[in-house]
UniProtKB/TrEMBL annotation:
<dbReference type="Pfam" id="PF13439">
    <property type="entry name" value="Glyco_transf_4"/>
</dbReference>
<dbReference type="InterPro" id="IPR001296">
    <property type="entry name" value="Glyco_trans_1"/>
</dbReference>
<dbReference type="Pfam" id="PF00534">
    <property type="entry name" value="Glycos_transf_1"/>
</dbReference>
<feature type="domain" description="Glycosyltransferase subfamily 4-like N-terminal">
    <location>
        <begin position="14"/>
        <end position="189"/>
    </location>
</feature>
<dbReference type="InterPro" id="IPR050194">
    <property type="entry name" value="Glycosyltransferase_grp1"/>
</dbReference>
<dbReference type="InterPro" id="IPR003783">
    <property type="entry name" value="Regulatory_RecX"/>
</dbReference>
<dbReference type="InterPro" id="IPR028098">
    <property type="entry name" value="Glyco_trans_4-like_N"/>
</dbReference>
<comment type="function">
    <text>Modulates RecA activity.</text>
</comment>
<dbReference type="InterPro" id="IPR036388">
    <property type="entry name" value="WH-like_DNA-bd_sf"/>
</dbReference>
<protein>
    <recommendedName>
        <fullName>Regulatory protein RecX</fullName>
    </recommendedName>
</protein>
<feature type="domain" description="Glycosyl transferase family 1">
    <location>
        <begin position="211"/>
        <end position="354"/>
    </location>
</feature>
<keyword id="KW-0963">Cytoplasm</keyword>
<comment type="similarity">
    <text>Belongs to the RecX family.</text>
</comment>
Amino acid sequence: MNIALFSDTYLPDINGVATSTHILKKELKKHGHHVLVVTTILPHNSDYIDEDDGVLRLPGIDLKKLYGYRASNIYSFKGMKELKEFQPDIIHIQTEFGIGIFGKIAGEILNIPVCYTYHTMWADYSHYITPGNLKAVDQAAKKIIEKISKIYGNSCSELIVPSQKTADALRKYGISNSIHVIPTGLELEAFALENKNQGLVDQILQEYHLQDKFVVIFLGRIAPEKSIEILIDAMSDIVKKEDKICLMIVGGGPQLEELKTLVHQKGLESHIFFTGPKESEYVPSFYHAAQLFVSASLTETQGLTFIEAMASGLPVLARYDKNLDGVIVDGHNGYFFKDQQDLVEKIIHMYHSDLTQLSTCARNDAQKYSSENFYQHILRTYEQALAKHHYCYKVVSITPENNHLYTVAFQFDHHQILLSLSGQVIERYGLSVGQVVDREELDALKDQEQVSKAYKLALKYLTYKDYTYAKMQKKLMDKGDFDDIQVEMTMDLLMQKNLIDDAEYTRNYFQKAKRLGMGMNKIIYHLKKEGVSPFIIDEYLEEYSQDLEYDKAVELVQKLYNENTTRPQYALIQNIRNKLFNKGFSQDVVERAIENFDFSIPKEHTMNLLTKEYYRVYNRYKNRYQSHILKSKIITFLVQKGYEYDDVMEIIQQLWEDTND
């Protein structure tokens, strides 16, 4: 495909949007797609050179408060000319300013689908456009942001967000378009410890005098929404207790000078270091020079720097935010903190702790945010956008596959959609070469293809074990490739073929449970856990007599009684009672089975057991206690084991003199 990416910020800018756009471009090109990045001109003082000719830069002016962003005109004749020559199949907008608006206009002119990624929760950045931070003006600004977000979100072919929190916020704004939650992928290899540039790390440690220090790092945009002042205030308390802990702040932004002044006022220059912004190739070494990553920001839409830090082997310490659910697992790859005091305590705690396990988990967990996974999700979204944009699809070929399936090729413009369909579906829809179908019919055929895939997957699962309706439905939904309707259609097909039958599952489980000696309570608990309807369970219970459960309980009592070689009568009864309860037998059945069973044990057998137990306890403790204390201890122990007091005293009288000489 030919894909045009529109973004107001791009390399060499250091921010999440620029990074995400660059990574997407590289992944698309790696998989054979042609990519054109449409962005603004380089900063006036930059000597950066674009890596290839796939970047179209349009005039713009720096927005000083929004570090890394430049404002451009909403339309460019030169840009439109180059776009037409590029012939994009799809436009993917990354930002909402001049370049983003130009992308929307270009999509309408070229009549191609427009995808849009909502990277930034702009309501968290309204202070940049609020003079004097007036509350009324700030609230008005947030309302304007909501309306703009709604317009963008509902007018694109497909809407992409990096986190579920962002999706939830946009739904509250009133966006009705479908929303794809796709976390931005990262090129994690550069951050891997095996690719560590030790020479550069040593240079960093030497430059900032961090040798033999415990280095806590914050890396990102230096701006109010990042709440960096919380980290600085926390360091005031930390250095009073642990002088070796230092904070390294990496990045640039509008609040940089203000925070430097704050550090100076607090007299923390020897413990807090500002490095300024760094080129992307140097960033991994700054992570590798640290032992812990920390952030107090509550405005992240995904937290790319958190993932970079984890990939570098750093545990992460972050103020809790819903966007970080799934990224940070508290106590597993890092910790959340509630407030400044909690932050101080956790940093000091981690300074004194072995962070090896947290580091290993952080590295492993970061891998799910790879650029390859990111690409695969984005590509599926592009395919959906293309399918929704075109309304007429012509069947150009029907090719037999294996297993009674056919590959049906649908042509629209110069693109093709391939579906794998059964002969039955082809016949039902009357498909033939040359036939034209509309979008609704094509969507229905896609559902049929997915149902076929889901059905095959279900058969694979059923090869190994039986499933209830609820368990199979959840299994297919968890797979993530099928929507609710497709799963429901699959379940109907499985039920029609009697492959899923909760009544039969219940019947089979009762029979199996009886063979295993399970009680009624445990059987019912398991069936409910498997999702079987209480009505089906009650229906079968009518066929299952309580007498059968009692017979099974008596059978188990007899077995345990026959196997007993160590317990006296009282202890044996208690042991059997516990085992019956654990097996799930009801209390009435347990008590009836025990009450009606003859547990009498011959006196001679009891005394033999008691003798063995006496010698075992005596030999074990004879060197620990004086004679009179030992005797008392043995009596107490044997009675506690369940032996009758009179029998214990009889054994003591017989054996004590001999063993205590």
